[in-house]
Amino acid sequence: MEDLEAALFEEFENYSYPTEYYSPESDVEEKIPLGVVHWVSLVLYCLAFVLGIPGNAMVIWFTGFKWKKTVTTLWFLNLAIADFIFLLFLPLYISYVAMNFQWPFGLWLCKANSFIAQLNMFASVYFLMVISLDRYVHLIHPVVAHRHRTLRNSQVVIVLVWLLAAIMGGPSLYFRDTEELNNHTICYNNFHKHDPNIALMRHHVLTWVKFIFGYLSPLLTMSICYLCLIFKVKKRNNLVSNKYFWTIVAVVLAFFICWTPYHLFSIGELTIHHSSYFHQVLRAGIPLSTALAFLNSCLNPILYVLISKKFQARFRASVAEILKYTLWEVSCSGTAGEQLRNSETKNSGLLETAQ
Fold this sequence. Notes:
Blueprint: H1 2-9, H2 34-66, H3 71-88, H4 90-98, H5 107-140, H6 142-148, H7 151-169, H8 171-175, E1 176-180, E2 185-189, H9 196-236, H10 238-268, H11 279-307, H12 309-354
Antiparallel strand pairs: 1-2
Helix pairs in contact: 2-3, 2-4, 2-11, 3-5, 3-7, 3-11, 5-6, 5-7, 5-9, 9-10, 10-11
């Protein structure tokens, strides 16, 4: 029963070791109110879903269907698509946690759901990095941007980003598995059931690859690009640089705050293979850090729209156009109704006169 309890409390996306790693002898006293922690993580998941789905859908609608295709709008469109799909499957995670980590959806949906989550997580992070690189080249090296910053080249970059994200998320299709423990089914990373050394090696490799290529490299790229932009803009105009500076700080801080705990707890999870001393900390921290990472997908459309003045202007113009069209339709329908009533009144008067 101790193995079942340990397994059920582990976060679905990070459960990557066999249940025998949790032995009754190594369990520490439960001091963290895990029930409260999981309810807080559920609230954060729901918040990310409620805010992120309409926010990203709005960006997809405007950049994909209402505005002219440019390099910038393509970046925003694909970033919003990645975040939207990432959040679209969130109800499965919410159900999993709400049902006390019971996975009733089957093996293939366990694999597919995890792969789609990983695919769009990496795609979202990489598009954030691409946007920062694009802004750096566009503003610091305008000649290079004029030659190579084309729709065709941006489409090639978009395809490469999605392919790289698919490669990074690919291990989920292979390693994700389901297992039934005392009539309780879990969805976890089955690196190897029978050889702990192979399981340990695979877990270490995948965790560090995800940390280096899914967090550290994008964070360093964004920080360097935006620091160069801040110094460049500051030389031109202090008034503009202040607003630009704080917006960029907000973007980098949002990425850092949302993703750092997730990767730190993923690395900390590796210690379970050697010692379960931090067992309770991981059981409490992994769900919360995962929920915090999900929140970044609902913050992206807000923060990146704030950076682009053209985006703001187009958004206001589009909203004004929609409101104008809506009012015009209401006005026309009201005028038509009034004309119809006048016509009916006139016809009634003619009939009374004829009688």
